Amino acid sequence: IEMVNINELEEYLKNNLIEKRFNHVLRVRDMAKDLAKHYGMDEDKAEIAALGHDIAKNMKIDELKRIINENNIILTEDEEKTPELWHAMVAPIICRSVFKIEDEEVLGAMRWHTTGKANMTSLEKLIYIADMIELGRNFPGVEELRKYAFEDLDKGVLHGLTHSIKYLLDKNLLININSIEARNSLIMENK
Ligand code: FE
Ligand code: FE
């Protein structure tokens, strides 16, 4: 992996995230490294992707929208109405421009951490589930998700997607098509 100054990245996060979010990011980093070690994956890539994933989480909505427009990202009609997804689109843009992170797999893991997508790479799966099961999370079922994630990454992500889709269904919220496609592709891959 290219040179990334982890200390500078952490410093940026400390200055641009509220404390609660910053602590979440550090816990995602710990969980991502644990999972990477467990599966013999690149721990440095996991660390950088984890640190970057919520880098834009506390940006103002207008600022996120401006960056999305400036980078010619086309939002679907439902994405226009789901600002919760925007920080994931902006994270790789900031990490590329400010921290010169060029690794497409690392940037992809940041980009897809909220919704997932069809045919995710191992690192994309790892960050998706690390975000959900970091040790500060305490929703019903999280213990089971942690167990699955260390048993089999695909099983962890599949159940993670099921959990979050169920949540959105129960709340009558929009479900991004990428989450459905992520889940369908995992089911097909493992058939
Ligand atoms: Fe996020
Ligand atoms: Fe997060």
The overall pLDDT average reads 97
Biggest beta sheet attributes: none
SSE class: mainly alpha
How many helix segments? 11
Low-confidence stretches: none
Task: Let me know the number of strands.
Answer: 0
Per the principal axes of the C-alpha atoms, what is the gross shape?
Answer: globular
Q: What level of helicity do the residues show?
A: 55-70%
Rounded to the nearest angstrom, the distance between the terminal CA atoms is 33 Å
Radius of gyration: 16 Å
One letter per element, helices H and strands E, the order comes to HHHHHHHHHHH
Q: Beta-strand level of the residues, as a percent range?
A: under 5%
**Distinct small molecules:** fe (iii) ion
Short description:
With 191 residues, this protein is mainly alpha-helical. 68% of the residues lie in helices and 0% in strands.
